[in-house]
Design brief:
Helix content: over 70%
Shape: globular
Largest sheet: none
């Protein structure tokens, strides 16, 4: 537990220092994120979006120089997702959190590389969004296995998985009917951040509060489940209203 706390403190410290450096450097708005309309926490966390793109800029340049195409990151992200599910199922939450984080970086990079090299296509969009679902399901299935012996853990993990798929389905179905919808709080980025953080902090929080390992994860997964079902319902209503408007 002490090792995980130390690692989290180091990561947090490095992140805060880099945020300060980013702010001093002028808080450059990332053009690609702007064009894509990327947001976090209903726009309240947009500073974090552009800061993180700034942090990833060296990897962005490396990928272009090395000639790595989007599929390199698609495959890498899928592998990281599968590994995260196995690690979480085996109880290695901290390592699973790192695997999810690596997969998240790959998910960002595949789209950025595609748009930067003008190979963005319907194929790429389909593969990207579909593999994202695989990756998320892998991690949450890992939680189902890890929490199978707890009173509500497996249920909360399964509910979070179902809600996440409903959020994605509502958007995909809306887009197929000509309505783009990015409404709602519990989108992929928010789910990803919460999942990573609880993987890193579950044992620490459980020890601090005198709880069994996995209990904090159950709480967070329950929150993700509630948030995703709420977001899916919001999107369903929002899209339905747009489709009922006179053309």
């Amino acid at each position: 537990m002490q090792g995980s706390v130390l690692a989290f403190v180091v990561v947090l410290g490095v992140a805060l220092v880099s945020m300060a450096a980013y702010a001093v450097a002028g808080r450059r708005v990332d053009a690609d994120a702007e064009r894509k309309g990327a947001t976090f926490a209903l726009g309240a966390g947009n500073f974090l979006v552009h800061w993180f793109m700034w942090v990833l800029s060296p990897l962005d340049r490396l990928a272009r120089r090395a000639g790595w195409g989007p599929d390199v990151f698609n495959v890498a992200g899928l592998v990281c997702g599968a590994v995260s599910g196995v690690l979480i199922a085996l109880g290695h939450l901290e390592a699973g959190g790192w695997a999810i984080a690596a997969g998240g970086v790959c998910d960002i990079m595949d789209g950025r590389v595609a748009r930067a090299t003008n190979v963005d296509s319907k194929y790429g969009k389909f593969i990207d969004s579909t593999l994202d679902r695989f990756v998320e399901v892998f991690a949450l299935l890992g939680f189902v296995v890890f929490l199978r012996a707890t009173p509500y853990g497996a249920f909360c993990a399964a509910a979070a998985m179902a809600g996440s798929l409903l959020v994605s389905y509502a958007r995909a179905r809306g887009e197929s009917l000509g309505v783009l919808c990015k409404e709602g709080l519990m989108q992929r980025a928010e789910r990803l951040v919460l999942t990573i953080l609880i993987c890193w902090l579950d044992r620490t929080l459980a020890g601090f509060w005198g709880l069994s390992v996995g209990t904090p994860s159950t709480w967070v997964l329950g929150a993700i489940a509630a948030g995703t079902f709420g977001t899916a319902a919001q999107r369903t209503i929002w899209i339905s209203r747009r489709l009922r408007e006179p053309s």
